[in-house]
TrEMBL record:
Protein name: Histidine--tRNA ligase
Domain Aminoacyl-transfer RNA synthetases class-II family profile: 8-329
Source species taxonomy: Bacteria, Pseudomonadati, Pseudomonadota, Alphaproteobacteria, Rhodospirillales
Keywords per UniProt: Aminoacyl-tRNA synthetase, ATP-binding, Cytoplasm, Ligase, Nucleotide-binding, Protein biosynthesis
Organism of provenance: Oceanibaculum indicum P24
GO MF assignments: ATP binding; histidine-tRNA ligase activity
Repressor keyword on record: no
The gene coding this protein: hisS
EC number assigned by the record: 6.1.1.21
Length: 414
């Protein structure tokens, strides 16, 4: 083997990348907690049926992108391609419906077999939220506000646009589906092969087709808004009014859809032009029919997911690593005392690097290479007097500090 590389569509999160990644998760988790969303983690793999039932047998994710395999016990399992299905399954498995409403935040890896490109990998990572058990539009407004709040906290909201649409209630959806099928039926010879296959199974997904011929047909297709009943119009009106009350701007995009029947009412995407063609950074919608379709009690829900890799690319700068303090014993005789001092300072909350070898000059060079904030030098004379020499590596100032005061003195240098 000439070279050992990561599998295609995966990458290593080296320290600099990891700090960007962690910044996204930390800000998202902290912001979600302000809205009462509790952290949850579901298994990285589930029985395949969990995703086949929730994502639809005809979806690209199920037919082309899922990592599915038979385990040693003969069970068919799938690495999770998204987070919502696992949370809905957890609601049912753990009998949580008696505790509704429930609000969850999650973060972790997802897996899809697709062509890798900028910000899109085969093992990728998402943050997401799910709000379960609230049928009214106030839940939609809160979930959208949380998404905007997180993007703002990351410093990317000013490069992002919220696109919003309504899929109506089941009655409105059925009415629209009929006219949509009739329209595309009249242009069957111009539809792509994929869209012809979807026409009767999942016609709304044609509206999201990337095929140029399909897109020309979609441009003249009937618009969902013309088939909304009054209840659906009122629901969407309340969502828009809530966003306006919060000062969150949005664009209504009548072509923004979700193809699966359990989606209702609000659908949305936060998009950016800063990442080229792959512009969606956060997307979600209301899925009132999902839990019931999985065999649980009918439970309204709404949520979104966001790609951590894409959000990390949008961060203005890489978060800095904490600057350590370097402890440098003058000779081997002081190393046990230096080691004990390093332990005390770490337990007091300081980042400490302990020189592993070499003379004082070499250890000082290593401290500068690590961008250390300060160096603590301990020699025989200092130990005898229970002091250490503290050198500020930014200013060059050097003072003797009693060992018992070092932790407090270092706090002033942070």
């Amino acid at each position: 083997m000439a070279s050992l590389q990561p599998a295609r569509g995966t990458h290593d999160l080296l320290p600099e990348d990891f700090r960007r990644h962690a910044r996204v998760i930390d800000i998202a988790r902290e912001t979600a907690s302000l809205y009462g969303f509790a952290p949850i983690a579901t298994p990285i793999f589930e029985f395949t049926e969990v995703f086949q039932r929730t994502l639809g047998d005809t979806s690209d994710i199920v037919t082309k992108e899922m990592y599915t395999f038979t385990d040693k016990g003969g069970e068919q399992v799938t690495l999770r391609p998204e987070g919502t299905a696992g949370v809905a399954r957890a609601l049912i498995s753990n009998g949580l419906s008696q505790h509704l409403p429930l609000k969850y935040f999650y973060a972790g890896p997802m897996f899809r077999y697709e062509r890798p490109q900028k910000g899109r990998l085969r093992q990728f990572h998402q943050i997401g939220v799910e709000l379960l058990g609230v049928p009214g539009p106030q839940a939609d407004v809160e979930v959208l506000a949380l998404g905007q709040h997180i993007l703002d906290g990351l410093g990317v909201w000013n490069r992002t646009t919220l696109e919003l649409n309504t899929l109506g209630d089941p009655e409105s959806r059925d009415a629209y589906r009929k006219v949509l099928v009739a329209y595309f039926q009249d242009h069957l010879d111009k539809l792509s092969a994929d869209s012809r296959e979807r026409l009767h199974r999942n016609p709304l997904r044609i509206l999201d087709s990337k095929d140029e011929g399909d897109r020309r047909l979609v441009a003249d297709a009937p618009v969902f808004a013309d088939y909304l009943n009054q209840a659906s119009q009122d629901f969407f009106g309340a969502v828009k009014a809530g966003l306006e009350a919060l000062g969150i701007p949005y664009n209504v995009n009548p072509r923004l859809v979700r193809g699966l029947d359990y989606y209702t009412h609000t659908a949305f995407e936060f998009v950016t032009e800063a990442l080229g063609a792959q512009g969606t950074v956060m997307a979600g919608g209301r899925y009132d029919g999902l839990v019931g379709m999985m065999g649980g009690p009918e439970t309204p829900g709404i949520g979104w997911a966001a790609g951590i890799e894409r959000l990390a690319l949008l961060l203005a700068e890489t978060p800095e690593a904490p600057r350590p303090v370097a402890i440098i014993p003058v000779s081997a005789a002081e190393e046990p005392a230096a080691l004990a001092l390093a332990d005390r300072l770490r337990r007091a909350g300081h980042v400490v690097e302990f020189g592993y070898g070499g003379n004082v000059g070499k250890r000082m060079k290593r401290a500068n290479k690590l961008n250390a904030r300060a160096a603590i030098l301990i020699g025989e004379s200092e130990l005898a007097r229970q002091v250490a020499t503290l050198r500020d590596l930014d200013s060059g100032e050097q003072v003797e500090v009693p060992l018992e005061q070092l932790a407090d003195r270092l706090s002033s240098l942070r």
